Amino acid sequence: MRAAVIILSWNGADHLADCLDSVQGQRNNNALTVVVDNGSEDDSVAIARQHNDVQVIENRRNLGFAAGMNVGIRWLRSLVQLPNVVVLLNQDTIVAPDWLHNLIEPLAHDQQIAAVGCKIYYPDGKTLQHAGGWLDPARALSYHFGHQERDEGQYDQPRDVEYVTGASMALRMSALDEVGLLDEGYSPAYFEEVDLCWRLRRSGYRVHYTPGATLRHVESSSIRDPVARNTLAHRNRLRYIYKTFPFERIRVDFMTAERLRLASLPHSLERRILRRAYLEGILRREEWLTARAAFYPISDDEAEQLRHICIELRAAAGNHI
Questions:
Q1: What is the mean pLDDT of the chain?
Q2: Cα–Cα distance between 88 and 221 in angstroms, integer?
Q3: CB atoms inside a 10 Å sphere around CB 224
Q4: Is residue 261 left, alpha or beta, with left meaning phi > 0 and alpha meaning psi from -120 to 50?
Q5: Cβ(24)–Cβ(33) under 8 Å?
Q6: Reduced DSSP (H G I as helix, E B as strand, rest coil) percent helix, strand, coil of the chain, to 5
């Protein structure tokens, strides 16, 4: 299969050279490598241009993960020889020599597989970070199988999963033509890959984890402030719920679970972070309803109830700043 690897860079000079070296060092590598730079203010672009056979696309500003990657995918679509597979890769990764071959192999053997993720380690190369992903069904909290476990072969079986992380995911281009690209409403980051995997599965495709493809990942090197990072993750979790959950699941399961979680967090930092995320939801609720309308019919009564979800939750979270 013809493959292209898109690496999204943003002020990643400390990591990008090692990432590119590992990608270009792949065994039997005929893939096109593309670096999409999101307006870096460091030497990221210069580092990328120092590597032979790398196509560099420069965005004037930081577009976030989804929009930045979409720039690269749209550029690939302009090529005479369109790749069958596009691989999205974070700049703070170092991939194993056989990573690419093993990552795209499931796509070559099963037409129903549209997204493939790999086994990801922390920088020590022993502690697992990701072996496929799943969501809490009530609150849509995202989890990785194997997270912070020592790898002892317990995740060495390939299998279908709910989602795979965007830090490294191979995507069938024809499936993207059908379901659309990454949703840029999750900008700057978090839950865009969960959303894409949901749309793929909704269209009858499978999302797959393959343990033979491995890499090491620093994780969260772009957003280092934990409060900002967690607020953003919760805001985009709420957007995902608005967009993808059936109405009764939001009204009953989600609201019950979310209120119970708030009740268990008096005067905590998490409670304050959630309160900030709910405010974001109040400000963005019309855009979120528009995103939902592409997948669910919305009655006037449902729309009005959905508009009040984050208002009710913010009130339940109290007045803590």
A1: 95
A2: 17
A3: 8
A4: alpha
A5: yes
A6: 45, 20, 35
Residue in 20, 39, 15 with CA at minimum distance from that of residue 219: 15
- Name the band, by pLDDT with cuts 50, 70 and 90, for residue 29: confident
Which of the two residues, 220 and 199, has the higher pLDDT score? 199
Measure the CA–CA gap between 182 and 180, rounded to whole angstroms. Answer: 7
* Widest distance between CA atoms in the chain: 59
pTM for the model: 0.96
Its CATH architecture, for the domain 3-217, is: Alpha-Beta Complex (3.90)
Nearest to 131 by CA among 93, 175, 167, 98: 167
Report the distance separating Cα 286 and Cα 188, nearest Å.
19
Helices and strands in the chain, H and E counts = 11, 12
3-state DSSP call for residue 321?
coil
CA 114 – CA 98 distance, rounded (Å)? 20
Q: Which residues contact 187 (CB under 8 A, 6 or more apart)?
A: 63, 64, 65, 66, 67
CB-CB contact of 69 with 182 (8 Å): yes
Question: How far, in Å, CA of 130 to CA of 286, rounded?
Answer: 34
What is the rounded distance in angstroms from the CA atom of residue 184 to the CA atom of residue 178? 17
Q: With bands split at pLDDT 50, 70 and 90, how would you rate the model's confidence at 220?
A: low
Residue 44: which H helix or E strand, with range?
A: helix 44-49
What does the domain layout of the chain look like in residue ranges? 3-217, 226-317
Handedness of CA 68, 70, 75, 79 (dihedral sign): positive
Residue 251 φ/ψ, nearest 5 degrees: -65, -40
Q: Residue 130, by phi and psi: left (phi above 0), alpha (psi -120 to 50) or beta? A: beta
**CB contact burial 283-305 (16+ within 10 A = b; e otherwise):** ebbeebbebbeeeeebeeebeeb
